[in-house]
């Protein structure tokens, strides 16, 4: 018989190591920052271009892309930072969500729902493949955004976790799965656009996708999705479920000894993470205007890991900070010194690993503690 509280050491540990950013004041600050970013599209829409307060369309699109990356990083943090499952294949779920939404956007760009995209005409398709059925409806496309990444993650995770594959072996298998999917989507006969993928989007829900108000709306939806994921992540990590996930990360064998079967817990958080990543990909596609198999490349999945490590895994807010920091540096480097970006990325990863093992958030927490201790003295 299992005791009513079989993990007392975890309860104590979670209170002792509770991050500063979980405190109410910190979350009030987070909401204030989110409100600040929510105002930026208003400045884009309501001020003339030559006004000092004007925010350009480029900035709104760039920040909207960063928000989608932050959502993907947060999804990865739930499985890596809190459960100890290092995935090198989350780019697959991101891309699957993007392709599911892209199918709708491609059909919305045509005068008729039966009119084929240009790449299908070029490849001599005479009708849509069966898996394109009903994708002219936005609601069904968003159902696919949730269903497809979730189903792929559930099936893969069930067999992997049931076989007790973990550690570096699991990471390698996720990378192999992503690479295989990328090769599949590169093939023209799959009906997903081959090398070029999907592009030339024109409308979303009947609105011009390039209009400022449409871009602002996509930005707000992305920001709301990120806030919702933050609240959901906090609810999970502060619950008994969160303590079990932390126990899986710290000592899965001991958890089994206490009478818990980790399979269901790992499968749940793995599938949820994939769905959140798919939602991020679906919101990303209309804002950048393209989705192709390169989004599934192993390099993209590794970059996600770097985002989480840079910001600080196991902190919820850390992956968001990391995604914004790394992609901000990438935007500057690729415009000023494009040939040196990969070197800079590698240097950043080594720097974080050696000097900031807890990431930027860990450094901030350490500085805050030092400041508080000096204030007391």
């Amino acid at each position: 018989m299992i005791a009513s509280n079989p993990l007392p050491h975890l309860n104590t540990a979670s209170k002792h190591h509770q991050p500063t950013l979980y405190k109410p004041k910190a979350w009030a600050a987070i909401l204030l920052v989110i409100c600040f970013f929510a105002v930026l599209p208003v400045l884009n829409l309501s001020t003339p271009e030559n006004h000092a307060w004007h925010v350009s369309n480029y900035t709104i699109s760039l920040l909207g892309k960063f928000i989608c990356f932050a959502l993907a990083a947060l999804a990865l943090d739930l499985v890596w930072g809190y459960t100890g499952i290092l995935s090198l294949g989350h780019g697959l779920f991101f891309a699957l969500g993007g392709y599911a939404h892209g199918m709708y956007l491609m059909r919305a760009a045509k005068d008729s729902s039966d009119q084929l995209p240009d790449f299908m005409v070029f490849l001599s398709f005479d009708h849509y493949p069966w898996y394109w059925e009903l994708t002219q409806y936005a609601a069904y496309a968003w159902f696919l955004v949730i269903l497809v990444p979730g189903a792929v993650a559930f099936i893969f995770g069930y067999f992997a976790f049931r076989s007790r594959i973990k550690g570096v072996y699991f990471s390698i298998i996720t990378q192999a799965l992503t690479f295989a999917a990328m090769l599949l989507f590169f093939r023209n006969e799959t009906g997903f656009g081959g090398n070029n993928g999907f592009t030339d989007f024109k409308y979303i829900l009947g609105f011009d996708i390039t209009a400022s108000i449409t871009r602002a709306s996509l930005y707000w939806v992305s920001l709301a999705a990120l806030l919702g994921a933050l609240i959901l992540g906090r609810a999970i990590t502060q619950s008994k479920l969160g303590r079990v996930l932390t126990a899986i990360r710290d000592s899965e064998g001991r958890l089994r000894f206490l009478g818990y079967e980790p399979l269901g817990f790992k499968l749940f958080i793995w599938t949820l993470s994939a769905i959140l990543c798919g939602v991020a990909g679906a919101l990303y596609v209309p804002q950048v205007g393209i989705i192709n198999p390169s989004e599934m490349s192993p390099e993209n999945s590794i970059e996600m890991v770097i985002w989480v490590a840079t910001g600080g895994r196991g902190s919820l807010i850390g992956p968001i900070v990391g995604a914004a920091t790394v992609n901000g540096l990438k935007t500057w480097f690729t415009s000023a010194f494009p040939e040196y970006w990969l070197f800079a990325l590698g240097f950043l990863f080594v720097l974080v690993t050696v000097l900031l093992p807890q990431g930027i958030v860990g450094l901030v927490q350490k500085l805050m503690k030092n400041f508080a201790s000096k204030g007391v003295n």
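Residues 1-6, 8-18 have pLDDT under 50 and may be disordered. Strands lie at 198-199, 203-204, 207-208, 290-291.
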